[in-house]
Specification:
three-stranded antiparallel beta sheet, single chain, mainly beta, nine-stranded antiparallel beta sheet, about 250 residues
Length: about 250
């Protein structure tokens, strides 16, 4: 008997969108992925004969095949965040905005976000709505956190609503749950450290990620994101073909 064949897995994980023929397009590195799991589940129909009085089992037939997968991701890049949350990376070219109105009824001490929820702005000017507008003074009438787009009113002179003008830079953000159901090809370049860094390649052909069950926004440890992957039957792969209908695992050595 030779050495036991143990597996301790490492290595990068990539996602790629599929073309119309099911072929993976540009590979996107998921970054630090400390855990990947695959579970093949088969449901069977059983029968127990009723002639002998012993109810012996005489049938065990597979009737449903399900492949489940999960991966834990640590790197919260914009593209990863979009996958975590079933969203889309949105690009905004920025520019100048003028005279956007705050809500009315502001009193001293109130804090509000900028009217279009912009962040990282510059050249902020706030005026009132009088015929000859009063320009509010920063540090006297209000303070502003320009990075987060938050304004605190210290005094409320003049006529409301107050109106804000500022410059917004080009920016990107991720929407929540706006692009659910997108299909990906999963490509894992495995390194088996239990066997001298032997190489293994694992691929899932057609996978739908579900949004992360928990997205950590605060904490003392590096945040992790658990993503459930739902592998689907790939109609571009032949029935009974060598590579299977869901995926394959190849030991490259």
């Amino acid at each position: 008997m030779g050495n036991p064949y143990y597996y301790i897995g490492q290595g990068p994980v990539y996602l790629a969108e599929r073309d119309a023929n099911g072929f993976p397009q540009k590979l996107e590195d998921m970054g630090e992925v400390p855990q990947v799991e695959i579970n093949v589940k088969v449901d069977y129909v059983d029968n127990f004969e009723s002639r002998s009085g012993r109810r012996r089992q005489d049938l065990h037939v597979p009737v449903k095949t399900t492949v489940e997968a999960m991966m834990t991701v640590k790197e919260a890049t914009l593209k990863n965040l979009a996958r975590f949350m079933g969203g889309t990376v949105v690009s905004n070219g920025g520019g100048n905005v003028a005279d956007l109105a705050f809500p009315t009824g502001i009193v001293a001490g109130d804090e509000l976000l900028l009217p279009d929820l912009a962040a990282n702005v510059s050249a902020l000017v706030i005026k009132d709505s009088a015929g000859a507008p009063l320009t509010l003074t920063s540090g006297t009438h209000y303070t502003a956190d320009l990075k987060f787009g938050r304004v605190k009113f210290l005094q409320t002179p003049g006529t409301q609503p107050y109106k804000a003008s500022y410059t917004v830079p080009a920016r990107q953000y991720v929407s929540f749950a706006s692009d659910l159901g997108k299909e990906y090809f999963v490509h894992h370049e495995g390194i088996n450290t239990a066997r001298g860094d032997e190489r293994n390649r694992v691929q899932l052909y057609r996978v739908v990620p579900e949004p992360a069950t928990k997205i950590a926004l605060k904490g003392d440890d590096v945040a992790t994101y658990e993503i459930k992957l739902v592998p689907l039957d790939d109609p571009t792969k032949p029935e009974g073909g060598d590579l299977g209908k869901f995926g394959n695992w190849e030991i490259i050595s």
